[in-house]
Design a protein that fits this description.
The structure is a homodimer. By secondary structure, chain A is an alpha+beta fold. In chain A, 26% of the residues lie in helices and 21% in strands. Chain A has one domain (3-342): HIT-like (HIT family, subunit A), CATH 3.30.428. Chain A has seven helices and 15 strands. The first copy, chain A, has a ten-stranded antiparallel sheet with strand order 3-4-7-9-8-13-14-12-11-10, with helices on both faces. In chain A, strands 1-2-15 form a three-stranded mixed sheet. A two-stranded antiparallel ribbon of chain A has the order 5-6. In chain A, a hairpin with a 6-residue loop joins strand 1 (3-6) and strand 2 (13-16). In chain A, helix 1 packs across helix 4 (252-271). At the A-B interface, strand 1, strand 2, strand 6, strand 8 and strand 9 of A face strand 1, strand 2, strand 6, strand 8 and strand 9 of B. Strand 1 of chain A pairs antiparallel with strand 6 of chain B.
Chain lengths: 343, 343
């Protein structure tokens, strides 16, 4: 008998096939190939003119702006979903509501190395990417038009990436998206009732049972959530309460880099380098410091197709119980950066 | 400048690229191919034993159950997402909530013709499919465990179909999905304030401006919604208020068959027979007759990939303004069944 499970944060129910869950080999897996040709790649060193002028770089000691020598480079998206100039101009149209599509849309080029991935980069390079996320978030929060900054990554064409060279994206929005608002509000209701953060409670319970724990280090833990929408979905959370990504203690980013690299290496090992998305869930601008919301990263490999049932109901059918996916991921044979860090 | 538009029913914002919207030829289109081989098709006449025993058939005058001669055939899904036997058994698991995955999961085989589609079938055959939807809904509503019945269709592999032979699906659920609840409640709030159905108001406004109207006949209208999630998304609605699909006047189904066929033919003509999903949105069980909810069919062609931004925010980026998609669809050259019906 399949199981209906409810995600305690979003209230979303999912259908979990518990009988004989789909194992890694049951999925039609498409490995994300190594990018073929660096010559015309807009994110490769030497091709800096192919992108709009850079907003932030790390690592360049000599040379002018938009020249090689950088280790991480942030540029405006050449085909932005939102425009950076102008006012909001809210307006009605009969029954309907609209506003100008004002916002920021940036690309974080994670490395000059055309064939590297976040899983293959050295820990130190991954840490630089995490610092770039933070620095851009902090800078964009000064723009009074913005209410939310989303950092996300589309890895592989199947996950929506249109450029092969490894990169993440950032979108700053003039409104708090409904899905974020609902998640934050739901955590607030839980806190209001119990005086505890729901994510802190979940982490406590998951560490007790252990069956959905994928890995942990001093500061972070990776879990398969109890009611995942997708097979092999993972959540990476700080173990001590923290409400916003950009306000982490500076020592945390090195630790997060190791944990994220470890997690992505497990994903690559178990599912043969699949396409995936990840999203940083953090508190909205203006409510960064709070006791009820717990920032985290959600990682979803692209293994199944979203179809009519999901679009019609918001329910998801997940063919792999999280207890099974956690076991595969936990037991993956990798040269974990966590092991090295402990020495 | 792109535009942020809000869907008045769900409160969901979308980003619409208004500058130079993507036209039909700008999408990497994958035509759903004609199914190659009928020999082992579980939905073809003669292969009735390859499915679980039938629940409903139309058109068979002689011969026993599960033999050829039918025109529409409904069977349980061989790999059901939910199990039909057993009780709900709600249960807690520490912080978490679960229940048995009780529900119905059925397949509506729309025609014995292995290579037909809903767009190519004669109107009369499409009407039979619509009657089968209704009859199954009415039957399942007698099961006191169920609270919602969703009818949906995945057409083409890219839209999640795993069998080529044209078919729809039905899932009966023991809970009202959150997304359905939100939509119905939002309509109720509008009604509570204005004493009018929001969909009726939308239809009125859209017929006035005309720019997002794709087609209409006596009873139905097809629109490009004001804030569509996806390029070339369409909504097909009854013009006179009706709160549930299964309670339509019996004369309506022939009219709906013509309108649906017309709409799908336009989609095929403009986008070269794309993969698509459609979902029937109707009132939950036990609240079928009401003044605030307006049943309708949502049709979403599979042209873009849902990526990290959408998963992180619930926002959608739509590269085609609905005014443009409506124009392409409205002006499509097809041998419309509506034209014939008028004569």
């Amino acid at each position: 008998m399949p199981e209906l499970r409810k995600d305690p944060i979003t209230g979303r129910w999912v259908i979990i096939s518990t009988e004989r869950g789909k194992r890694p080999n049951d999925f039609l897996r498409e490995t994300v190939p190594s990018p073929p040709n660096a010559k015309n790649c807009p994110f490769c060193p030497g091709n800096e003119a192919k992108t709009p002028p850079e907003i932030l770089v790390y690592g360049r000691s000599n040379g002018g702006a938009n020249t090689p020598g950088w280790t991480v480079r942030v540029v405006p998206n050449k085909f932005p979903a939102l425009g950076i100039e102008g006012d909001l101009d809210r307006e009605g149209e009969g029954l309907f509501d609209k506003m100008n599509g004002v916002g920021a849309h940036e690309v974080i080029v994670e490395t000059p190395d055309h064939v590297a991935t976040l899983a293959s980069l050295p820990e130190r390079a991954v840490e630089d990417v995490l610092w770039a996320y933070r620095d851009r978030m902090l800078d964009l929060k000064n723009d009074k038009r913005f209410r939310y900054v989303l950092i996300f990554k589309n890895h592989g064409e199947a996950a929506g990436a249109s450029v092969d060279h490894t990169h993440s994206q950032l979108i700053a929005l003039p409104i708090v998206p409904r899905r974020v608002r609902e998640e934050v509000d739901s955590c607030w209701h839980y806190y209001d009732e119990k005086e505890r953060c729901i994510f802190c409670d979940i982490i406590r319970q998951e560490r007790d049972t252990g069956e959905r724990v994928i890995g942990e280090n001093d500061h972070f833990i990776t879990l398969a959530p109890y009611a995942p929408r997708f097979p092999f979905e993972m959540w990476l959370l700080p173990k001590v309460h923290g409400s916003s990504y950009e306000n982490n203690q500076s020592t945390m980013y090195a630790s997060l880099a190791r944990m994220l690299k470890d997690t992505l290496m497990r994903l690559d090992a178990v599912l043969d380098r699949p396409a995936y998305n990840f999203m940083i869930h953090t508190s909205p601008i203006g409510e960064e410091i709070n006791d009820h919301y717990h920032w985290h990263i959600e990682i979803i490999p692209k293994l199944t197709k979203v179809a009519g049932f999901e679009w019609g109901t918001g329910f998801y059918i997940n063919p792999t119980p999280p207890e099974e996916s956690a076991r595969f991921l936990r037991e993956a044979k990798i040269a974990s950066p966590l092991a090295t860090a402990k020495k």
